[in-house]
């Protein structure tokens, strides 16, 4: 049975999100990302650079292992839209690398890309909240200005890949993950104590007490666990939550 482009894109997101396997291979994962990016975005080539965790950036994968393309992806770790992208944390696009502005901005990358047959280059960050771990480069043989929808899909692919990589890194650090889980369970214990304090003080059932607690924290853009700690240790008066509830 044939599938539509939207269905194939949805399957790609599922595949990229499925990192809960024992033999998860990051490099194979990134190669898949580059290949699927070319398929879904109708670009001619795609590549990934990642942080080496020492302040530098290194090529990690490409949609092709063609020698000149591998060299170009290595060059983009030193200069180009990809490096600008990780610096700003925002998408960077260039519709024509022959333009004077592009030549002046990337005097090394632009000639290298043109020499490999690419006229346009863009990049989207691989970023989760404040952590940028790399970027996804999109290359076209014709001078093309990527539209907002194409950039958005590229960013979505990069986002889900970022989550997968960070999940794999966390899983690999078993001790750290165990500490995070232990801390989470400890916070849950404090929340249970806070619910009890609030329920008794305001004659609420536990569900309503928890709802009040969450609403109070959300209204003030505070962490639920911090408010719970204050209730549990008596720093916060339950009556204050009643006054602020709406």
Helix and strand arrangement:
Elements: H1 5-17, H2 26-41, E1 45-51, E2 57-62, H3 67-75, H4 81-88, E3 92-94, H5 100-105, H6 109-115, E4 120-128, E5 131-140, H7 148-172, H8 174-202, H9 206-219, H10 224-232, H11 238-244
Antiparallel strand pairs: 1-2, 1-5, 3-4, 4-5
Helix pairs in contact: 1-2, 2-7, 8-9, 8-10
Give a short overview:
This protein has 246 residues and is α+β, with helices and mostly antiparallel strands. The protein contains 11 helices and 5 strands, in the order ααββααβααββααααα.
Note the main attributes of this structure.
five-stranded antiparallel beta sheet, alpha+beta, Beta-Lactamase, 11 helices, Arc Repressor Mutant, subunit A, 58% helix, 246 residues, 14% strand, 2 domains, 5 strands
CATH architecture designation of the largest domain: 2-Layer Sandwich
Low-confidence stretches: none
Helix content: 55-70%
Chain oligomer state: single chain
CATH topology of the largest domain: Beta-Lactamase
Q: Give the distance, in angstroms, between the N- and C-terminal Cα atoms.
A: 53 Å
Class from secondary-structure proportions:
alpha+beta
Outline type: elongated
CATH class assignment of the largest domain = Alpha Beta
**Helix/strand order, N-terminal first:** HHEEHHEHHEEHHHHH
Count of extended strands: 5
